[in-house]
Design the sequence.
């Protein structure tokens, strides 16, 4: 299979504009003849559905929550990047582009990233026009902060609730279109399969989570905006419902899955407290702007009260190892550094899995009120969960799974290798390479949904020339029957174990062997164990209740079944990639001081996996990555 | 610690429901309330019984999905807290805890503790937006907004749309929810062109959905997990009256 990324020719800075001109248009009166299915209502899905509706395309939009406003994007805290250079600190489109390619450890496609940086400025304008209450300075202009791994202040924010405010902005635009009748919204409806007719994506199969009704939907194109797969690890900062199901079912219908091993571990999360734990809570990375990370120098001191340890007994290890970036090194670097000091026995708190994030200096420098103004809600959240007051004792933090850079393969038009199937937001693999910089996911989701897909999908319609489908074609009937049979099969197993128990089991397995650090033996052992877990799942699962009602156990079981298949691909990809890059750290490939060592000669490519009919025998295709402008170098944050 | 739960169980929207007594043994003080329910649900599944259905997603107080009335109070005893952020350290061994859904005529129960809050989305669709098309916005700094105005807008905008305000009100009024959206836009220049239209249409939809009138008892403010102040209701009333006068014909 030849993977054509369809990157337009011409100089990097002119590609998008030229491409926009070259793409075919659909005339306004004809737009209503092309219908679109948008699965997902997060930043990517809501912005796409609203914009497509505005343009005149009839849109069907789906989400599994009770309202589109509750998509997981709502939980983003820290901010959104844009190359506005409002602070006059030397930012530019080129710098944002460069930082993103470098931050991604030279594993992203240059042309996509450049376009993202260009369009970033439009996002801020548009969201402001929608009434998003971004933070402001006294002069009335927008405020910025510096964020995760950047040396310029280009991050826009709305207190610690940036994702909420952006999503509510996109949601308000979506609701307006729903009110106008251009978009039909289907909440509490889960996509369980993709329907392909004549080689093109033409519809989906859904299950109504309340009534259990299984239904098919036909359209002229399908857009997946279904978010990331971080919950394969069971414990992550993601919302409970986040899943790989939509992507995975599309994969099994032919869509290639790219770089599944690129997962991001966020350095600042509240550590695990016990077996009952259902999720990990992120403490926004913005805290690292003022908080200082440290552990005791001597492991004999880990149990001592942190306030009793004098300065000379503390190791501010990020400031020591990375003097120029200090506490602001990118996430992958900060996470591994935390793991290293904990592995040395210098970790603090239960199980020695924690490091301090200390605000004492900031409180002294700025005063408690100023610190409260910046981080008050985060401090409150921390205290609620841990019953400790971070104004008085340092926070304890530990890395946790947070974001997935891997996802369905897409070309420059955000279309997968299956014609008509477009993938946007966290669900695709496109812009972050092997590591995402802070505040870039919100930017990418909105860029895809507002400013890229609405153009490229028109070009697809204008050139695909597919006959109309009605939803009664045999492909629809067959896909519907398969979904019904699979649902029934889950209900009929009648075993002993709950869906959650399998989820925890697979989560621990992949965290232990395919988490922050990976090695051949561990990955191999995971590969040996996963099929066994899957086999037991299909033999010993216990799903109570029936398929004709609101059944939370059934819902979960379907998602866990897909995680059980997907995890094997993720581990295989990690085993195959014999290098360390970004969030993918192979212990065999590190520098003497423990930094990631890439292998550009053999691995400057996207690994895009094809489903062959056998989950355990995927076929890999390579999209070579070409760097015309940025020259890959060893990332250094020292 | 060991607790006894009295949980509302209801098979579907048409069935009649009832409180069921369910044991919750070995609860750790570090668990969140929902994690305690997870553990109870695992036990129920182990016994071949159906787990308790409840809405939840982010589990960090921002998505607004979780929606339990705990011992008669929406989101439970802690102020400014969603159900998912409530921790079991606030409970004593042996406690009996009643857990019910958010109740209102406009929020029909779908199953157990899950209700349908689609009415809120329909109110938003009626007018909770600024009409701008993608693509034509001016530079964001072209329109300076005083920090104090932006802050007031943000205070109102932090509403998570959970519906606790409705569940707490004996008239099941949605004034705090609607007021929050109206207030957000009223404090911003972007919101001005549609200010009258917005408030008239949102209030009309609110009435159509069957929400009641404000009781002026402020139970909504007391349970709001984001501590949205009732000043937004005053602002809503003021804008609504003004808009009615200006738009008489
Ligand atoms: C705690 C936290 C904080 C973060 N903070 C930041 C930050 O400060 N800055 C930043 O840039 N990024 C941040 N991120 C990352 C960012 O929030 C996400 O990457 C981004 O919001 C994803 O948006 P999305 O639209 O792609 O997907 P989501 O918002 O996850 O939306 C997915 C949508 O798909 C729907 N869906 C999924 N599966 C199905 C299915 N099978 N059927 C039907 N519907 C389905 C869901 O209902 C939902 O509507 C953060 C992430 C987390 C977890
Ligand atoms: S689960 Fe999201 S607010 Fe409680």
Sequence:
């Amino acid at each position: 299979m030849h993977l054509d990324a369809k990157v337009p020719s011409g100089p990097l800075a002119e590609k998008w504009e030229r491409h926009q001109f070259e793409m075919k248009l659909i005339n306004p009166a004809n737009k209503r003849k092309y219908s679109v299915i948008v699965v997902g209502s997060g930043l990517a899905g809501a912005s796409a559905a609203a914009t497509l509706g505005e343009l005149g395309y009839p849109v069907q939009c789906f989400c599994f929550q009770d309202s589109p406003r509750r998509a997981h994007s709502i939980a983003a805290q820290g901010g959104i990047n844009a190359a506005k250079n409002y602070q006059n600190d030397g930012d530019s489109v080129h710098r944002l582009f460069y930082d993103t390619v470098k931050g991604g450890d030279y594993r992203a496609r240059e042309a996509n990233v450049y376009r993202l940086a260009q369009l970033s400025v439009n996002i801020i304008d548009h969201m402001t026009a929608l009434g998003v209450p971004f933070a402001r300075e006294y002069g009335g202009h927008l405020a910025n902060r510096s964020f995760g791994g950047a040396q310029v202040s280009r991050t826009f924010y709305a207190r610690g609730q940036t994702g909420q405010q952006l999503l509510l902005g996109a949601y308000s635009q979506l609701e307006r279109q729903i009110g106008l009748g251009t978009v039909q919204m289907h909440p509490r409806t889960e996509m369980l399969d993709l329907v392909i007719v004549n080689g093109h994506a033409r519809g989906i199969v859904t299950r109504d989570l309340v009534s259990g009704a299984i239904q098919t939907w036909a359209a002229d194109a399908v857009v997946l905006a279904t978010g990331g797969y971080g919950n394969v690890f069971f414990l992550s900062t993601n919302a409970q419902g986040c899943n790989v199901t939509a992507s995975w079912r599309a994969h099994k219908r032919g869509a290639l899955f790219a770089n599944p091993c690129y997962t991001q571990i966020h350095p600042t999360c509240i550590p695990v407290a016990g077996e009952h734990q259902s999720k990990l809570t992120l403490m926004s990375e913005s805290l690292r702007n003022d908080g200082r990370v440290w552990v005791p120098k001597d492991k004999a001191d880990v149990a001592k009260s942190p306030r009793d340890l004098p300065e000379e007994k503390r190791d501010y290890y990020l400031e020591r190892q990375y003097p120029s970036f200090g506490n602001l090194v990118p996430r992958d670097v900060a996470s591994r550094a935390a793991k290293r000091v904990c592995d040395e026995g210098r970790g603090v708190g239960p199980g020695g899995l924690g490091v301090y994030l200390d605000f004492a200096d900031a409180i002294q420098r700025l005063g408690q009120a100023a610190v409260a103004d910046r981080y008050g809600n985060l401090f409150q959240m921390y205290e609620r969960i841990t019953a400790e007051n971070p104004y008085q004792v340092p926070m304890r933090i530990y890395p946790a799974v947070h974001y997935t850079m891997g996802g369905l393969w897409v070309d420059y038009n955000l279309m997968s290798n299956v014609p008509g199937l477009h993938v946007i937001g966290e669900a695709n693999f496109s812009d972050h390479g092997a590591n995402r910089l802070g505040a870039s996911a919100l930017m990418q989701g909105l860029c895809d949904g507002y400013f890229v897909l609405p153009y490229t999908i028109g070009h697809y319609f204008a050139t695909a020339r597919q006959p109309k489908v009605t939803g009664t074609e045999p492909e629809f009937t067959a896909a519907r029957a398969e979904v019904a049979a699979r649902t029934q099969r889950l209900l009929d197993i009648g075993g002993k174990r709950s869906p959650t128990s399998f989820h925890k089991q697979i989560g621990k397995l992949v965290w232990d062997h395919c988490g922050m650090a990976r090695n051949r033996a561990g990955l191999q052992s995971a590969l040996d164990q996963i099929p066994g877990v899957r086999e037991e799942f299909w033999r010993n699962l216990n799903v109570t209740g029936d398929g004709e009602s609101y059944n939370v156990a059934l819902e979960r079981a379907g998602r866990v079944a897909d995680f059980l298949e997907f995890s094997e691909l993720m581990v295989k990809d990690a085993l195959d990639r014999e290098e360390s890059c970004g969030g993918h750290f192979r212990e065999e490939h590190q520098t003497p001081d423990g930094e990631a060592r890439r292998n550009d000669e053999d691995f400057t490519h996207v690994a895009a996996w094809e489903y062959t009919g056998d989950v355990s025998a995927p076929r890999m295709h390579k999209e070579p990555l070409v760097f015309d402008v940025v020259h890959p170098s060893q990332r250094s944050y020292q | 610690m060991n607790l006894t739960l009295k949980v509302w169980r209801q098979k579907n929207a048409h069935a009649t429901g009832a409180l069921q007594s369910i044991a919750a043994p070995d609860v750790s003080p570090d668990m969140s309330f929902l994690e305690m329910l997870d553990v109870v649900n695992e036990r129920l599944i182990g016994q071949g019984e159906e787990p308790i259905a409840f809405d939840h997603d982010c589990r960090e107080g921002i998505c607004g999905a979780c929606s339990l009335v705990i011992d008669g109070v929406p989101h439970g005893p802690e102020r400014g807290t969603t159900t998912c952020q409530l921790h079991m350290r606030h409970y004593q061994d042996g406690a009996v805890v009643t857990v019910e859904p958010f109740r209102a005529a406009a929020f029909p129960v779908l199953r157990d503790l899950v209700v349908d809050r689609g009415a809120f989305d329909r109110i938003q669709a009626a007018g909770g937006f600024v009409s701008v098309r993608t693509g034509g916005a001016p530079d964001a700094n072209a329109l300076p907004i005083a920090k104090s105005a932006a802050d007031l807008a943000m205070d109102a905008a932090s509403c998570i749309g959970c519906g606790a305000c409705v569940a707490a009100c004996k008239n099941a009024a949605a004034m705090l929810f609607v007021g929050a959206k109206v207030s957000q836009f009223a404090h911003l220049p972007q919101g001005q062109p549609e200010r009258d239209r917005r408030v008239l249409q949102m209030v009309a939809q609110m009435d159509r959905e069957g929400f009641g009138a404000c009781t002026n008892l402020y139970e909504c403010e007391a349970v709001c997990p984001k501590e949205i102040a009732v000043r937004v209701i005053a602002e809503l009333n003021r804008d609504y009256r003004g808009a009615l006068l200006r738009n008489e014909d």
